[in-house]
Every structure is written in structure tokens, then in C-alpha cells.
Write a structure and sequence with these properties.
Layout lengths: L7 H17 L10 H21 L3 H27 L12 H16 L1
Helix pairs in contact: 1-2, 1-4, 2-3, 3-4
């Protein structure tokens, strides 16, 4: 078992989550239970799955949770694309490019942990 706070991938994913929350603050109230909630949930899910994987017993379980985190990062990416297509009705979120770094790092660690 390792401390997830010591992982660079978790720290980067946490920054992306904070940026996602900040970016969605300006979304219309009509999106509060729609796109806003989906963006926030998928961003937080990346960090949560990394943390949960760290709390599990072995490397195989850790790798599985990193793969789940990668899926959540892909989901977040889609929601951000969707938000950007709304143009003026929904402000474009400005989430740091560390999302791709977090996804790549998680995937690399999952591959080497198997």
C-alpha cells in the first residue's frame, strides 16, 4: 500500500479537478445537474480511483484502478469537448493540459505494474 498523495499523477489529476470545478462555476444554472455535474464527477473520479488503487493490496489491483482512472479521464475529455461546442451559451472551461499527462502517466504505471 502506498500513499496516493506522493504520486505525481495524482497531484496532476487533482489540479485538473480543481480547475474543472472552477471552470464550471460560470456554467448556466440549467447545467447544474447536467454537464456541470458530469464534468465535476468525472474529474474527481480520476483522483478517487488513483487513491483507491493505492489503498488496495497489490500491484494488479492498483493497475486495475489506474485503468478505471484512465477511463474517467477520457470521459472528462469528452465532457470538456461537449462544453466547448456550446459556444457562447456555456463558457469554455480552461482546464490545464496536465490532463493528458495524468492519463499518460496512469497508463504507463498501469502497464509497468502488471
Amino acid at each position: 500500500m502506498q500513499n496516493f498523495r506522493n504520486l505525481k499523477v495524482w497531484a496532476k489529476a487533482h489540479k485538473v479537478t480543481l480547475a474543472a470545478y472552477k471552470a464550471t462555476e460560470t456554467f448556466p444554472k440549467t447545467e447544474q445537474y447536467g454537464l456541470t455535474a458530469q464534468i465535476r464527477r468525472s474529474a474527481a473520479s480520476v483522483c478517487a480511483n488513483i487513491a483507491e488503487g493505492c489503498g488496495r493490496g497489490g500491484r494488479i489491483e492498483f493497475a486495475r484502478f489506474l485503468q478505471i482512472a484512465f477511463g474517467s479521464a477520457s470521459e472528462l475529455e469528452y465532457h470538456l469537448i461537449l462544453a466547448a461546442t456550446f459556444g457562447s451559451s456555456t463558457p469554455r472551461p480552461t482546464v490545464p493540459s496536465t490532463e493528458q499527462s495524468s492519463r499518460s502517466s496512469a497508463c504507463s504505471r498501469a502497464s509497468s505494474a502488471s
